[in-house]
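Risk register update: the risk of archive-format incompatibility is retired. Evidence:
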Amino acid sequence: MATDQIEARRILVTGVGANPGFALTRSLTRMGCHHVVAADANPLAPGFLLPCITPQRIPLATDPGYCARLAELCRMHKVDAIVPAIENDLPPLLRMAARLKEAEVRLWLPEPASVHACIDKAAFHQVLTEHGVPTPRSWWGDTLGQVPDDTELVVKPRCGHGAQHVHFVDNRRHALMLDELVPDALVQQRVHGVEFTADCLVDRSGRASAILRRRDLVKAGLAAVSTTFHDPAVLDLVRSTLRAVRAEGLCCVQGFIQDNGAITITELNVRIAGGFPLTEAAGADLVGQMVRGLFGLPVDHSRLTYRPGMYLTNYVETLSVGDAADLERTAAEEDAV
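Archived output:
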């Protein structure tokens, strides 16, 4: 994707073992001017196999040494900015935001209250409800006793991601049984219809661009087949959602268009979506404009228009096979440098 020529940067991307981080790393390297330090806790992360990157292992976001390790990598590799591509990394990055600013390492995230309102599904439900944005009925904590027995339900963790620990049930009894198994469970009314994702970029003045994609076939939480589309009503509701949580920077909104035409918002992720390559193929310079905003340059929203009716299909393929001990030895040598 062509973008206005800007200074070459060294950008650290976290979570390169999952689709969003992998695809973001690939998009940044294909721009031809930026170098990516690809970071993940898994030594077998697929993103480590991409060409022209510097692979680096980091601890899990819950590890006490996470912040120190990232600060070390920023110094070692003269990193100009960090772009998280997985939700788990958001809380520790917020905690070290002042430290990164001192080191002149860029981090483009909304204010902490906005981030927490998005990574906690109960808080997200409350914010959207307060602002009149349609979202599924939800119950958690002390309100679980109010779950009805006349509707299909979804049980998920309040702070989960990547469709982990998500269960679909058709009665209250099963939902309450799963409450014992799902960590910090939230029970939500199940919504049916056309599922969509909006790839969004909100500049520092609050102006937002959004590219709409239907999730035509979803497997394990990922869009295996998707198609771009235009719908003014969906776009208006997506923008209302972004305003409600005071979003800024790169994010994605998900929801459903129900058979009766009602639109329901289900979540907002403070990161790039795994299916964003379709957005770029449809003509929107999403990553290029994100980099401009990240480094304080104006976002050109005219470069974020797109063509409807473009499709993308994803398929899992084998990237590499080999002896895992070789990778462990390589990683140990890198850590020792």
